[in-house]
């Protein structure tokens, strides 16, 4: 049986995709033990051309070509054909740290954990160039913390760090629980990882670093590039996460904590609206859209949450004005 499937969605990343794919083949793994599924999501640049020689060189690479259907659909399509016992989904502009994957996969196969979450290091493209001659070194052998998915969710999970690329997922866990990415939206990692932790059995967490996260100011995920479309998608991510409170057999304590974690996402949305959007009319429109998308959204844990909810539901124009006043008082006019 194939031990691992590495799924790499690709869309217009011709400057970054080659180092990503090259890093996969620097893990000290036997190529018979894993497959690399490259999902070309309708790239319009030379992304596929710059890695064609790598594709031809290795027999364990599978290429899926599709129309531009979104990152989430690309990942879903990769999962659908994956044969590995475990699945890893690195982003196409990031890298795997050399020889970082093998000990994580070994531990996953030994324990049959549903999820194995690793750490990462952030670097700019300039910093990544500098480490070519001096690769990132691990400081110690990995030490794993074991817990249930729900306990890991309580103790560790933060929605603004819902990075699927740092997690090894057991494929049967995803399939048996019908865990998929919501198609067509940005921030699809947030509801997906919420649900994964809530449904997982054994989970492992380690400070062992697996990924180099590339800091890109032109990236669609960079906060300053938050757009009207991304705001709409973020509203859907909040809506999908909020709906999990009604999941079958979820304990009351966990439902309570889930609402608090969704409130974190909601506050993140507010921050983006206040710091990135220029027009109050656009800010108010997003809040109204969220109210329409998620009519049951109501935070009630303490006076702060209740105040946010009342203003959000009753006085969105005044709400935005107050948030902007607070922003200016805290950070100045800039």
What does this structure look like?
The chain has helices spanning 17-24, 52-57, 71-81, 101-111, 125-130, 149-155, 171-176, 189-199, 228-243, 252-276, 280-293, 303-314, 316-331, and strands spanning 4-10, 34-41, 61-66, 86-88, 95-96, 115-124, 144-148, 167-170, 202-215. The protein has 13 helices and nine strands. The termini are far apart. The protein is 45% helix and 18% strand. By secondary structure, it is of the alpha/beta class. Strand 2 (34-41), helix 2 (52-57) and strand 3 form a beta-alpha-beta unit. Helix 6 (149-155) crosses helix 8 (189-199) and helix 8 runs parallel beside helix 9.
User: Helix proportion of residues, in percent?
Assistant: 40-55%
How many DSSP H or I helices? 13
From the alpha-carbon coordinates, what is the Rg to the nearest angstrom?
A: 21 Å
Order of helices and strands: EHEHEHEEHEHEHEHHEHHHHH
Return residue spans where pLDDT drops below 50 for at least 5 consecutive residues: none
Determine the structural class based on helices, strands and strand pairing: alpha/beta
Largest beta sheet, briefly?
9 strands, mixed
Shape: globular
Distance between the termini: 57 Å
Beta-strand content bin: 15-25%
Count of beta strands: 9
Average pLDDT number: 94
Task: Give the arrangement of secondary structure elements.
Elements (H helix, E strand, L loop, with lengths): L3 E7 L6 H8 L9 E8 L10 H6 L3 E6 L4 H11 L4 E3 L6 E2 L4 H11 L3 E10 H6 L13 E5 H7 L11 E4 H6 L12 H11 L2 E14 L12 H16 L8 H25 L3 H14 L9 H12 L1 H16 L3
Parallel strand pairs: 1-2, 1-4, 2-3, 6-9
Antiparallel strand pairs: 4-8, 5-9, 6-8, 7-9
Helix pairs in contact: 6-8, 8-9, 9-10, 9-11, 11-13
């Amino acid at each position: 049986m194939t031990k691992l499937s590495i799924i790499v969605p690709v869309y217009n990343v011709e400057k970054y995709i080659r180092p990503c794919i090259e890093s996969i083949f620097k893990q000290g793994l036997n190529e018979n033990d894993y497959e690399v599924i490259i999902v070309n999501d309708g790239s319009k640049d030379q992304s596929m051309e710059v890695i064609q020689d790598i594709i031809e060189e290795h027999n364990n690479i599978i290429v899926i070509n599709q129309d531009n259907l979104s990152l989430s659909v690309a990942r879903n399509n990769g999962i659908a054909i994956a044969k590995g016992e475990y699945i890893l989904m690195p982003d196409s502009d990031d890298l795997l740290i050399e020889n970082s994957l093998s000990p994580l996969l070994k531990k996953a196969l030994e324990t049959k954990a549903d999820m194995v979450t690793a750490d990462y290091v952030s670097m700019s493209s300039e910093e990544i160039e500098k480490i070519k001659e001096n690769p990132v070194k691990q400081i110690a052998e990995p030490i794993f913390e074991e817990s249930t998915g729900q306990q890991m969710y309580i103790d560790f999970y933060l929605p603004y760090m819902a990075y699927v690329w740092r997690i090894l997922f057991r494929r049967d866990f995803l399939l048996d629980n019908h865990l998929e990415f919501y198609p067509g939206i940005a921030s699809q990692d947030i509801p997906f990882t919420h649900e994964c932790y809530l449904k997982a059995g054994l989970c492992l967490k380690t400070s062992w670093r697996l990924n180099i996260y590339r800091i890109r100011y032109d990236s669609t995920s960079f906060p300053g590039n938050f757009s009207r479309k991304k705001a709409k998608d973020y509203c859907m991510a909040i809506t999908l996460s909020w709906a999990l409170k009604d999941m079958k057999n979820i304990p009351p304590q966990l439902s309570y904590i889930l609402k608090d974690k969704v409130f974190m996402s909601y506050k993140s949305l507010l921050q983006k609206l206040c710091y990135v959007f220029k027009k109050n009319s656009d800010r108010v429109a997003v809040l109204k859209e969220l109210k329409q998308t998620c009519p049951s959204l109501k935070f009630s844990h303490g006076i702060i949450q209740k105040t946010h909810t009342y203003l959000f539901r009753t006085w969105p124009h005044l709400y935005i004005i107050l948030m902007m006043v607070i922003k200016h008082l805290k950070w100045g006019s800039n």
